[in-house]
Design brief:
By secondary structure, the chain is of the alpha/beta class. The chain contains seven helices and five strands, in the order E-H-E-H-H-E-H-H-E-H-E-H. The chain has helices at about 15-25, 35, 45-55, 65, 70-80, 100, 115-150; strands spanning about 5, 30, 55-60, 85-90, 105-110. A five-stranded parallel beta sheet has the order 2-1-3-4-5, sandwiched between helices. Helix 6 links the parallel strand 4 (about 85-90) and strand 5 (about 105-110). The longest helix is centred in the C-terminal third of the chain and has 38 residues, at about 115-150. It is globular, with a radius of gyration of 17 Å. The two termini are about 35 Å apart.
């Protein structure tokens, strides 16, 4: 089950790989179509399943992505599924985003240094990791409570 689903245009593969690498270094499971889909697989069901199972969706918001019908569908699915959506803007500004995406706090990478981009993406990865650990602790407490009740 992926922790993060990366929605992006195939034209932005380099940025997608960059973000994925930061997340994987934090021991997060990441769905990135170019890596996660296997040759010969029917990709639509795989994408829907990964999107459904991810808590976070990172939209690599670029001019290419905003023009992509596939990205629009993925973001629509993220909104409908009440996912934690993070627009990561690198060649657009917040006012360029559609209203339904602009309401989400994101990262603005436009015009910043590579060091700053590394820092911002690493901080975001840490936030996802902390959220994952918190979820695991809650699940553990619930499971322990159920075991206690069953033992009575």
């Amino acid at each position: 089950m992926p922790d993060v689903f990366i929605s992006y245009s195939a034209k932005d593969e380099g940025l997608a790989q960059f973000v994925r690498e930061h997340l994987v270094r934090k021991e997060l499971d990441v769905f990135l179509a170019s890596i996660s889909l296997k040759t010969g697989e029917h990709w639509t069901p795989q994408i829907i399943e990964a999107l459904r199972n991810s808590d976070w969706v990172f939209l690599l918001a670029s001019k290419n992505a905003l023009a992509s019908p596939n990205v629009q569908q993925e973001v629509g699915g993220a909104l409908f599924g009440k996912k934690k959506l993070v627009p990561i803007m690198w060649d657009v500004q917040p006012h360029d985003l559609p209203r339904w995406v602009a309401d989400f706090q994101g990262l603005i990478l436009t015009g910043t240094t590579m060091e700053n981009i590394n820092h911002q993406v690493s901080q975001l990865a840490e936030k996802v990791k902390a959220d994952k650990v918190k979820g695991q602790l809650v699940a553990g407490v619930v499971f322990a409570g159920l075991l206690y009740l069953l033992a009575k």
